[in-house]
Amino acid sequence: MLRAAAAAGYEAFGYNRSEVGAKAARMDGYDVISDVEAVLTRAAGRDALIVVGVPMPAIDAVLSDVKTFAPDCVLTDVVSVKAPVAAAVQRHELGARYVGGHPMAGTSESGWAASAPDLFKNAAWAVSVDPGVHADPFRRVAQLALDCGAVVVPVLAVEHDRAVARISHLPHVLAEALAIEGANGGPLALGLAAGSFRDGTRVAATAPDLVRAICEPNATALLDVLDDTLEVLTQARDSLRANGTITELTEAGHDARTDYDDNERWFITDVRPGDHNWLTKLIDAGRSGGVLNSLD
Amino acid sequence: MLRAAAAAGYEAFGYNRSEVGAKAARMDGYDVISDVEAVLTRAAGRDALIVVGVPMPAIDAVLSDVKTFAPDCVLTDVVSVKAPVAAAVQRHELGARYVGGHPMAGTSESGWAASAPDLFKNAAWAVSVDPGVHADPFRRVAQLALDCGAVVVPVLAVEHDRAVARISHLPHVLAEALAIEGANGGPLALGLAAGSFRDGTRVAATAPDLVRAICEPNATALLDVLDDTLEVLTQARDSLRANGTITELTEAGHDARTDYDDNERWFITDVRPGDHNWLTKLIDAGRSGGVLNSLD
């Protein structure tokens, strides 16, 4: 985020609780400190837009600091779930200037060395349009996403969480299971593994604690999707056992992947933040694949 | 295969039952016809090594032609299962000069236009070392794999089939299920999908009939792995529901992916085809990750 915002011309400064992490960023010429009071006081003094980028388990501690040192700043986050963050923001009475966000981009690596200014180029960036979101903070958050090269997907927190259970959290769970089944085949199986196994297990290389921090706060939505997935797989297994075929699975799966390949963004051009019913209009547009690529 | 063998200096000629496919290859300067009797008669006259590259359901028809027109040629195949092909070869009484093969390489595309001479560079190429395999045909088949840029993984047909159920057929099944779950989330979910979903569903783009032709002949091994996978996923689901955590899954999955990343080929240097007990020695070496990168 810091690299991308700085590359886009923002006067960007940052905080990392680890002085090692902060120093690594400073060595590359970025303005990053490990003193949370100092960074938030500075943010408050400049009416900065605060972007919280920590795993869900660390949210409460960070919001508590924001409430203490910079309660009037516009606030967003890049956490992988939105409803639990929104609830935490409410608990800390920071809701008035909060607009949740989630850029759909990342790698299986972490730390300063894994960061890149072009990570968000052409990415989808979910931005909350929940009741109570105000137009001015929405504009600032959405503009930051656009300036980082992303498009803005307007979405309700709870619908975001259900969607990412399907397309982000389930891929993690299936990758872990696939990796386990492959390794159970020993060196022979792992030595024969090629592209389908490599790609299918790529995200299993993510640190286990990070996968937990991503998936567990979204347990309700993920459980629904896991139940569905177990049903799909059980049906395929039963069909293979009883009739020797997985026709239904392969045809539905191919159709689904074709839907994905054919799924095209369309640009929302007729809604401006602050217009009459703008939240409702953006919610509807986002549900049917619409994105904002400009605020004008 | 034809492109790779020709690039390696072989006098390679081919057959495709579709004249359109054969012509596409001829337009690129390759010697390919659509007359099966002519191509096999020519193969028999030159003591050619015959490589059968058809989906499992077409194997019987092809072997019947081979038995009629070129029964004394050395015979191999690149089909994704080995025990069912070996059984078919026995039925057609072609076992004496048969050595099964399976290069672990491919894309989700098919047809002449999707072929590439460097597809097998550095790939693992399973070659059968089942009882009854003779040293001379083994040498010819293994040398072809090496000349195409691959390394040879010596393996029993039944152990190959169990291994590929884990690292090739299960990835197909999980990719189909993941694609279905993603598409069920509609345009919003598909629009938010990023790298983990794209990679995890890549092979769901494969033609459904080809996925069936790959997986269904290996039903026995795939059913065992599917049962295991359902258990792993059910345990994760139950743990998430009861305790809010997927610790066990994420740690085992990460360890497994690390096993895969750390899995290194080692070169078998002390066994030559035809040596005393060479088949047994190669079976043992293959089981523990050994590969042949030379026959000398």
TrEMBL record, chains A, B:
This is Prephenate dehydrogenase. It comes from the Bacteria. The keyword Transcription does not apply. GO terms for molecular function: prephenate dehydrogenase (NAD+) activity. SUPFAM superfamilies: 6-phosphogluconate dehydrogenase C-terminal domain-like, NAD(P)-binding Rossmann-fold domains. It holds the Pfam family PDH_C. The keyword Oxidoreductase applies. It comes from Nocardia seriolae. Keywords: Oxidoreductase.
